Amino acid sequence: MTDTINPFAVAPSLMKDWQRMSLAVASSLETKLVLVEIRASQINGCVNCLNLHTVFARENGETEQRIYLLPAWREARCYTDRERAALGWTEALTRLSEGHTHMAAYDALKAQFSEEEQVKLTLMINIINGWNRLAVGFRLWADPAEVKAAAKAVSPDAGFRVRGRSGHIRSAASKAHAYRLPHARLRVGRRGYHAGGIHPMDARRSR
Predict the structure, then answer these.
(1) Predicted TM-score (pTM) above 0.85
(2) Three-state SS across 26-42?
(3) Can you give the CATH number for the domain in which 80 is found?
(4) Exposed / middle / buried, residue 38 (Cβ in 10 Å: 0-12, 13-18, 19+)
(5) All residues at 6 or more sequence positions from 21 whose CB lies less than 8 Å from its CB, including other chains
(6) Is 110 domain-assigned?
(7) Could you report the per-residue pLDDT of 139-178, keeping only the tens digit for each?
(8) Residue 182 within any structural domain of the chain
(9) Domain that holds residue 197
(10) What mean pLDDT, rounded, does the chain reach?
(11) Residue 24's closest CA among 151, 146, 120, 144?
(12) What is the C-alpha to C-alpha distance for residues 116 and 122, in angstroms, rounded to an integer?
């Protein structure tokens, strides 16, 4: 098997910025929209992100039925109109190479999401597609149990302070939101790179 690199080791500054952006985006919409991350990961065939996000979706109260039926969400009756709009937009943007049919999905999107929420959701879709490409490209692997153990150190009621170029941005992210983006610094293992036992987003508790 071809050897790959650990992006967190070779480009640590950029990857930390990427993690911080991921955390800020994940905490900007409701936790139930983890369905978006699972659906994009299904389309992209990302085993790492599928494994992580389905595990943590269950822990945050998502049902087996709603996870299993995601590939057939148009026919399934267990999703809200808002979730359907989000899933349609996710598929349209993730499959841009198959044709620019996203304007049909946009009509449903704008009926369920405010203009600001549309931007937040689109960023969320971009983030998960980015993680999918990093994980598939470099064969990254993070074990959910290791990520969960690292995340337990975060208080459920604590906010996070995310450092950007303009200073500190306070996020209302809870531990549940932290679980939604469980991509930690990685180390090499039998299945590629996997979690090294630190908090997934390298976030700090706000003081």
Answers:
(1) no
(2) HCCCCHHHHHHHHHHHH
(3) 1.20.1290.10
(4) buried
(5) 127
(6) yes
(7) 999 888 876 665 554 434 433 333 333 333 333 334 444 4
(8) yes
(9) 7-205
(10) 78
(11) 120
(12) 10
